[in-house]
Amino acid sequence: SPPSSSSGRIFAGALGLVIGVASTFAFLRMPYSVEGIDHNRDGVLEEQWVLSRSDAVVEARVDRNLDRKVDHVTHYGVRGQIDTIESDDDFDGRFESHSRVLYGNIETTDVDTNGDGFVDMVYDFKHGVVVTIRYVHPQTGVAIRVEHFRVGKLVRAEVDTNGDGKLDVRHAYGHTGEISLTEAMAPIDTAR
Known about the structure:
It is built from one helix and 13 strands. It has one helix at 6-29; strands at 31-37, 47-52, 57-62, 72-76, 82-87, 97-102, 105-111, 121-126, 129-136, 143-150, 153-159, 166-173, 179-189. It has 192 residues and is mainly beta. Strand 10 and strand 11 form a beta hairpin.
């Protein structure tokens, strides 16, 4: 048999190292145990923390309406930070809300309100506080209404009033939520 080359041994060693590191990482992140709290003392954990072999939280699950079905799941990243959140907000067994989290704050939440498989509402946040809600036409992905908030209160909205895919009317809202001003605006194309 021909003698093995030095570059072949280096490659094999590097490949073995990479496989070993990846396997160790996967093993330590693999769900290992579940701990939690039984709030109503029925023998079922309504709050569950899924831990890896290294005792890092991988996932948190919550049964918010105490029907013995998980309806809120938080997924954690490698460094223990929250990465994504899924929730079943109408408790029908389908997770219609999906949030992306950055630096501990929800950044965006996509919602399929009617179960047709298309996102029809998008919540945008700044530092974890909602700033806009976009109502999206499910088939076209075009915003048909965009609401703007300040400290949780609706202050203005742009609306596509004629279905052409362009926001063409702006409503301003008063302190008690009433429309204080409606004006036509130069159409804004919201196609992505």
